[in-house]
Design goal:
With 133 residues, the protein is mostly helical. Helices cover 59% and strands 11% of the residues. It is globular and about 40 Å long.
């Protein structure tokens, strides 16, 4: 059985946004504004390569840890997965476009998604070839 290419972690939702604003005495939006802005800004090819390489490294570490119970617990607590790379909707669209695919309609820039590692590996190879030229 094959794993799905994309997993939806969190789509844009007013309810989730309201809950985050209520936490931390209403200062949560201040702390997360820079993070949200970075998730929406597209990367150039060099930045995308570094970003995906880092995320791929995290997935490799999760795969190594998954061989023992303490590592699986750590992966569960941190949300690390050996088979998927977490991406914002904006960056997911970039990676899909790099490989010649259009993003499904469910993918929104402000959403959070996970992309299968083998697809990320092919995207990294394509980026590396583009950057070499």
């Amino acid at each position: 059985m094959s794993l799905p290419l994309i997993k939806v972690v969190e789509g844009p939702s007013d309810a989730l946004r309201s809950a985050s604003e209520a936490s931390l005495f209403g200062t949560s939006p201040l702390f997360s504004a820079a993070s949200k802005a970075a998730d929406l800004a597209p990367f150039d090819e060099g930045q995308l390569y570094v970003f995906l390489s880092f995320r791929r490294s995290v997935a490799l570490d999760a795969e190594t840890r998954s061989n023992w119970i303490g590592g699986r617990l750590y992966n569960w607590c941190t949300g690390s997965e050996p088979d998927y790379i977490p991406l914002s909707g904006a960056h997911l669209k970039q990676v899909l476009a790099l490989r010649g695919y259009a993003a499904p309609e469910i993918v929104k820039n402000s959403g959070r998604y996970k992309l299968r590692v083998d697809f990320v590996d092919r995207a990294l190879a394509a980026l590396k070839a583009n950057l070499a030229n």
